[in-house]
């Protein structure tokens, strides 16, 4: 079999047809890398794969992984293929442990067998659980409060063991709340079902849902609604590339938070969305959602200092504007 390699380093993007993975592929392609996508299209969209070869399949398919590693000279693997619905992880934990943990172990085994040693992992602030202090730094204790967060923490721990035993090198990126869309509007967020605040608020603005439910207005925050640290999906992509280049240069495994260090309440998000869209956006106050911490804000000082990460779209206004542009241009998402 011939190995495909050209002057551009090939990066295997597992979950590259999904929301964050597809933005990563566009960013890689714009920075002289070749994204090679592996995605089973359970949640991803074929139309979001535009910047490199596509393999339709799952990371549990060892033969397919071996085929990809034989065919392409893979410099590194980026893993975006986890299931990510916190609520569903509580009701269907088996699905989460199987995909997010067991299947990731298969992917890592295939890397070891094929001598691919650089791995960038989409971890989450959900690994910290209920915070003891804000902003959350990387040294904060990790006691996740739901199965989703536990699966992410298990993979972090597994990576450390794989490093010690097999020499695998990794960087874990613990995202806060990913949001926004490609400023050129080629790709965007299309989760089915959608559970995230910003796209739901924008669907309400478009009249696609009657109102946005605010999950609790009696939290110990200034306006009573939960506060989150929203981070633009392109700024996440920038951080991944910086992390990859640091890993290739230094060969040192590490973990970094990715957030803007600034919190916005649910009411603030709705207020900002009303200003941007010019729509009224009806609100319904609902019960608290189980497992929602009142405030999650991250310190990303480490990523800024060690990786030179400089978020370009940190302003909530820009995050919502780019998302709005995507939603109004693609009212039915990718379909
Ligand atoms: N919210 C509402 N109404 C909605 C949806 C959300 O009020 O219809 C609130 C939530 O209660 C929360 C905030 O808006 O306070 C943000 O909720 P999201 O569901 O958009 O995001 P989460 O903070 O729950 O979850 C996100 C990611 C997870 C990740 C988690 C880490 O989706 O993958 O951040 O906390 F694990």
Protein traits:
two-stranded parallel ribbon, binds uridine-5'-diphosphate-4-deoxy-4-fluoro-alpha-D-galactose, alpha/beta, 10 helices, UDP-galactose 4-epimerase, domain 1, 13 strands, 335 residues, Rossmann fold
SSE map:
Layout: E1 10-14, H1 19-29, E2 34-39, E3 54-56, H2 62-71, E4 74-79, H3 86-91, H4 93-113, E5 118-124, H5 147-166, E6 169-175, E7 177-179, H6 197-205, E8 212-215, E9 227-228, E10 230-232, H7 233-250, E11 254-258, E12 264-265, H8 266-277, E13 283-286, H9 301-307, H10 316-329
Parallel strand pairs: 1-2, 1-4, 2-3, 4-5, 5-6, 6-11, 7-10, 8-13
Antiparallel strand pairs: 9-12
Helix pairs in contact: 1-7, 2-4, 4-5, 6-8, 6-10, 8-10
The chain binds uridine-5'-diphosphate-4-deoxy-4-fluoro-alpha-D-galactose.
Task: Compose a concise summary of this entry.
Helices cover 38% and strands 17% of the residues. It has 335 residues and is an alpha/beta fold. The chain folds into two domains: 10-176 and 231-258, NAD(P)-binding Rossmann-like Domain (Rossmann fold), CATH 3.40.50; 197-229 and 261-329, UDP-galactose 4-epimerase, domain 1 (Alpha-Beta Complex), CATH 3.90.25.10.
Q: Would you kindly provide a written description of the structure presented here, covering whatever features stand out?
A:
- The longest helix is centred in the N-terminal third of the chain and has 21 residues, at 93-113.
- The chain is α/β, with parallel strands linked by helices.
- It is globular.
- α1 (19-29) links the parallel β1 (10-14) and β2.
- The chain has a seven-stranded parallel beta sheet with strand order 3-2-1-4-5-6-11, sandwiched between helices. Strands 7-10 form a two-stranded parallel sheet.
- α4 runs parallel beside α5.
- The chain is 38% helix and 17% strand.
């Amino acid at each position: 079999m011939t190995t495909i390699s050209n002057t551009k380093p090939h990066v295997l993007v597992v979950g590259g047809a999904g929301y964050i993975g597809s933005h990563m592929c566009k960013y890689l392609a714009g920075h002289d890398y070749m994204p090679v996508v592996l995605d089973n299209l359970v949640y991803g969209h074929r139309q979001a794969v535009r910047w490199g070869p596509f393999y339709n399949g799952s990371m549990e398919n060892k033969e397919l992984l071996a085929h990809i590693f034989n065919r392409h000279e893979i410099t590194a693997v980026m893993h975006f293929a986890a299931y990510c619905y916190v609520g569903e992880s509580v009701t269907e934990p088996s699905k989460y442990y199987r995909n997010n943990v067991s299947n990731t172990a298969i992917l890592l085994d295939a890397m070891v067998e094929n001598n691919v040693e650089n791995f960038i992992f989409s971890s989450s602030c959900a690994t910290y659980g209920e915070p003891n202090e804000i902003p959350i730094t990387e040294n904060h204790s990790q006691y996740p409060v739901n199965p989703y967060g536990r699966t992410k923490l298990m993979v972090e721990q597994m990576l450390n063991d794989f490093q010690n035993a097999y020499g695998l090198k990794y960087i874990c990126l613990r995202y806060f709340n990913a949001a926004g869309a490609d400023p050129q509007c080629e790709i965007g967020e299309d989760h089915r079902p959608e559970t995230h605040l910003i796209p739901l608020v924008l669907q309400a603005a478009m009249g696609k849902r009657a109102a946005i439910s605010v999950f609790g207005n009696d939290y110990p925050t200034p306006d009573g609604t939960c506060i989150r640290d929203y981070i633009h999906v392109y700024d996440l992509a920038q951080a991944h590339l910086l992390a990859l280049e640091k890993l290739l240069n230094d060969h040192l495994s590490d973990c970094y938070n990715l957030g803007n260090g600034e919190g916005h309440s649910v009411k603030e998000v709705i207020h900002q969305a009303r200003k941007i869209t010019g729509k009224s956006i009806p609100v319904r106050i609902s019960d608290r959602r189980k497992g929602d911490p009142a405030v999650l804000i991250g310190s990303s000082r480490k990523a800024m200092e060690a990786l030179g990460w400089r978020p370009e779209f940190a302003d909530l206004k820009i995050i919502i504007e780019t998302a709005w542009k995507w939603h109004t241009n693609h009212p039915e998402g990718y379909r």
